[in-house]
Amino acid sequence: MLIIDGYNFLYAMLGMEHSLPIKDFEAARTKLQEHLSRYQNITHEPIKVVYDAKGGAQVPNERYAGIDVVYAPPNSDADDHIVRCVEGASRPGEIIVVSSDRELAERVKEAGGRVMGSGVFYQRMKDAFERGADPPDDRAHEKPTRPDPEEMNYFLREFGEDK
To answer: Structural domain boundaries of the chain?
Structure first.
């Protein structure tokens, strides 16, 4: 699972991508969530984006195109909420927190989670967009029923009884 430090990553994207609106944070959050949803559709990784509460008020959590959007509770911040998520996870080592906040990174590592810098994730996301969605291969984990004749001849030559 990826947990995105929302405003930290948003500011990183603002520095790297000029198509994001700079003065309208509602529009910028929406654009970020569109990017994250597109990334999730390609990679199938569960994503949660965590923002600080709007104006100190409690804001309900929501789903946006397949990603969890969470606002930290009042009298808290996104960093504390993210650390609590990692601490409360049954497998914290499977959680990757995306943030370039050094203090948050240390806290996440102490809780057993992993950290990826915002710039690194941004590049990973761009690379995924360039590759596009790979069609799912429903047979990827399926064991073949029998080797084809060419494979059979190869194995007989390499591992036959007369060797």
So the answer is: 2-135
